[in-house]
Each structure stands twice: as structure tokens, then as C-alpha cells.
Amino acid sequence: MKKLLLLSVLFSSFCLQAQMINDPSFDSKVSQPFYKNNSGPKVLIEGGHHNFLIQRTLLNPFIDLVKSDGYNPEIDSLPITKKYLSNYNVVVLNPALPFDYGTKKEVGDLITFSKEELDHIYNYVYKGGSLLILIDRTPFDVAMSPLLDKFGIKSAYGNVADSLHMVKEFGKNVIQYSKENGLLTDNHPILKGRNASEAINNVVIITGSAFKGNAFTNILPTSTNAFIGNAGVNTSLEQGSSQGLAGKVGKGKLVVLSDSEIFIAMLFGKNKVKVGMQMPNYDLKQFALNIMHWLSK
After folding, report:
1. Distance CA 120, CA 107 (A)
2. Which domains does the chain have, with CATH numbers?
3. pLDDT digits (tens, 9 = 90+) for 234-287
């Protein structure tokens, strides 16, 4: 019950930020790096848009992981321009807002990415770049919806729940996607990996939103039992049939995930609940690596 209560309020209160720390026990080592001697692509972890995970250093475990896999990641917050993006092979846009998280309750008409920035991001992918977008529950899904719109993806605002496929230990907003429960059915390279040892059999989405993009492969399809809650109102998921999309945009590649917590390795709350890639019994660490491998091929 304590874990359930902790996760039910995850990212919902500014005062809880002090209860989020990186897990020092997380093993970021990769036994067989995808790229040897750090010869891999340059990766931008974008941090110029009030990015909560960057401000709290919560993406450091992911950065350590991709470094171990041979990539060359860096956090930067310079203005997004065509020239700036051209320096990178893979760009990671993590949960962004037009203000620091916790200082306002609603996004309203405030702009997270300017029209010019959105154009530069789209053109970067269309001409051959690779982009990973990490969304999250409200208000991040609202703030980043213009970015999804640019790629023809529609967001369903709120927090997905699924009592049939939930992780019982944590509650209906923490959803298990596995081959065993039938939600991992696609044969996409991200789910297959390079060999059987890299195959994704079991992942979890923690308090994530949802979206729909018909031009992309739905690697994490919501079930018919799922619904979305926003401001106390539950609705069907007709506008959001996915929590994970992958596909081509022009010459480039795009992956969108509705949950950012699966790319961290955090200890949450006084009980130090493990949240993210170090959670036992899930393939989240390999899932993150497979996504990067597919984007950088």
C-alpha cells in the first residue's frame, strides 16, 4: 500500500522533488557495447526548456548507460536551430515545460517550443536525423502536444489507467506490457533486439499519458480495458491508442514514449522505492538500449 500511495503521487507535487534521488546501485555497464571505444554517435540530451529531469539530474543514469554502450551524449541548452541540431546524430527531447515544474498549475496558452524550433526539429528528422521524445503525464503532455502535432501525432491528455493490465503492487496507473499478457505483440526491431538475449518480454509504463499516430508502428498499444483520467474525469482512449510509437519521418527516425520514468533509475520517497531501469523483473534497461540502437542504425 505504501508503494501504491507513493507512485500515485509521483510528479504531482513540487515538494516531492526532494524525495527523488538517483539510485547508486543501478548498474549502467553494458557487457557488449554497441559501439567500441566511444566511437558511437553524438547524442544531444536537450535541456533548454525547463526540463525537470535535467534540473534534478535524474537522466544521469541513462547518460551513464549510453556512454557505456559507446555513445557520446551531452546535455546542452543552447537555442534549437538547424545548425545546432546538425551537430548530433540522435536528439533526446525529455519532458519540457514553459516554466519550472511546480511553479504553475496549468500550461494554458504558454509556449514550450517556438514555431521556429518546431520547424527545425521536424526538418532535422525529415532530412535524416533521429529523435527520441519522452512525454509524461499532465502538464507535460499538454506542454509538448504541439511538438507531437508537428509529426501528425495526437495526444490524449491525462494519465492512463488499466485495471486488467496493472502492476498490482503499484495500482492501475502503472501498466505492464508483456508477451505473457498479450500487450507486446509487434515484431518491431526495438522489441526484437539483435538476438534472443536482447528481446523485450516485459516492460512497465509508470503514470504515463497516451497518443495516436497512424503513420507509426504502435509498439506499446493500450488495451481495450484502458481509460484516461484528467482532472478527475475518466474518458475512453479513442484519441490515445498507444504509449509508445516508432517509425520513419522522411529519411529520419522517431520514437515517442508516454513515460519518462522508465529512462531513469530513481529512489523515490522515504521508503526509497525503486523506479525506472533498475526495477527488478522488467527489461527497461535493455528497452532503452534497443531504442537507441534502432535510432542510430
Report:
1. 23
2. 2-296 (3.40.50.880)
3. 555 666 799 999 999 999 999 999 999 999 999 998 889 999 999 999 999 999
